[in-house]
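In the design runs reported in the main text, the only information available to the sequence generator was the tokenized backbone. The following block is the verbatim input for one such run; it is reproduced so that readers can re-run the procedure and compare outputs position by position.
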């Protein structure tokens, strides 16, 4: 999570070098073996000005630091979706905060009864290329990490190859492209409202 003096959200460094968890391992469990090896990558991210590492496995987004990663975007068909990695590969921690977010979203945002746009929950594999494409198309609404607490994400850095064939680096500034403030975010607002009850 970001330092207490950074209320605007986390900055993530997408890791293409290290792996936090792998199929057949214990990524689904809260054990030190999942987090000890990640300390070096997290130190590198902090040295480069980021708060945490966004863990990728074969290009697929998995977790942010020691937290679950969520992204809310509009599908190409225009549906508002809350997307997070699936549990089937046993590399994602099935924590109580993750379950609570999904349950609250199902209860309060799935059908639009709250007056907010309905949100479809999608648990599937997705890549940084999917995220970059959604940013470029203006479909990203928000991104956040959830562990013991929930924190909005404002920037993700990911080296990518543009379709023009030129190699470059891309800093996805979600705060300038999207609205990550809790007051404007349907999912984070529901979470905040529930936790204040």
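Verbatim output:
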């Amino acid at each position: 999570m970001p330092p207490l003096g950074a209320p605007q959200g986390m900055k993530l460094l997408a890791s293409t070098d290290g792996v936090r968890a792998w199929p057949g391992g214990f990524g689904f469990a809260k054990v030190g073996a999942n987090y000890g090896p990640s300390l070096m990558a997290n130190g590198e991210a902090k040295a480069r000005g980021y708060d945490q590492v966004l863990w990728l496995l074969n290009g697929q987004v998995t977790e942010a630091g020691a937290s679950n990663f969520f992204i809310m975007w509009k599908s190409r068909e225009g549906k508002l979706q809350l997307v997070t990695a699936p549990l089937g590969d046993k590399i994602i921690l099935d924590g109580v905060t993750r379950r609570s977010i999904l349950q609250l979203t199902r209860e309060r945002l799935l059908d639009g009864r709250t007056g907010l746009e309905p949100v479809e929950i999608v648990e599937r594999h997705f890549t940084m290329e999917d995220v970059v494409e959604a940013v470029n198309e203006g479909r990203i609404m928000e991104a956040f990490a959830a562990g013991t607490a929930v924190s909005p994400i404002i920037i993700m850095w990911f080296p990518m190859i543009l379709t023009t064939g030129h190699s470059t680096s891309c800093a996805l500034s979600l705060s300038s492209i999207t609205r990550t403030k809790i007051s404007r975010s349907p999912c984070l607002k529901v979470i905040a409202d529930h936790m204040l009850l």
